[in-house]
Amino acid sequence: MNVAENLHRIRADIERAGRDPGEITIVAVTKGFGADVCRAALSAGLTILGENRVQEALAKMAEVDGATWHLIGHLQTNKVKVASNRFALIQTLDSTHLAEALGRYSPGQQVLVEVNVAREPQKSGVAPEQAVELVAGASRLLDVKGLMAMGPSQGDPTPAFDELRQLRDQAQERLGKALPILSMGMSGDYEPALRAGSTMLRLGTALFGPRP
Questions:
Q1: Which CATH number characterizes residue 62's domain?
Q2: How many domains does the chain contain in total?
Q3: pLDDT (tens digit per residue) in 71-116
Q4: Distance in angstroms (rounded) separating the CA atoms of residues 21 and 156
Q5: Are 93 and 114 contacting, i.e. CB atoms less than 8 angstroms apart?
Q6: Which residues pair with 71 in a beta bridge?
Q7: Element (H or E) spanning 36, and its range?
Q8: Please, which residues bridge with residue 78 across strands?
Q9: What is the DSSP string of 135-198?
């Protein structure tokens, strides 16, 4: 594993997609890896680390200094209290119920609204048809910074990513303010996500290789 070399290759891919690497935020997805991998990411200049599970993230926070942490996995309402004020960004807001729970424990928490643009039942996220309404409602309780999505399991992800960008634009118009973050693109589909307008990539195996 050479994180610096992998990061260099990814930045070249970003340029090949017609984007400026300096304008793309990379979240290093360290779920399933130990604290040593987190430190390797930090050494390579990747200061934002993404975790799927609250308890795993909290354990790593106790071991690793100097990181900014994002929650990128589904947040259950019974974990909201323990997660409150621990993550710089929670990327997986997907219901009014969760927004209300976060608003009680972490008013003003920065979040992204997760949208199931893949329309796959195994994926989390609000239905696309309800996304703009959720953004509007959640913005009364939380600091909504944009939208997040996973691409489809099979096929060309471009239509799904295009739809997320369009929903972000609609939500911006509804709110009358910028929603600067479009978190879309993972290790297997980040190049089409970039071409569709992603501003934030969530990369694990592309940086670190296969998970143990």
A1: 3.20.20.10
A2: 1
A3: 999 999 999 999 999 999 999 999 999 999 999 999 999 999 999 9
A4: 23
A5: yes
A6: 51, 90
A7: helix 35-43
A8: none
A9: HHHHTTTSEEEEEE-PPPSSS--HHHHHHHHHHHHHHHHHHTS---EEE---TTTHHHHHHHT-
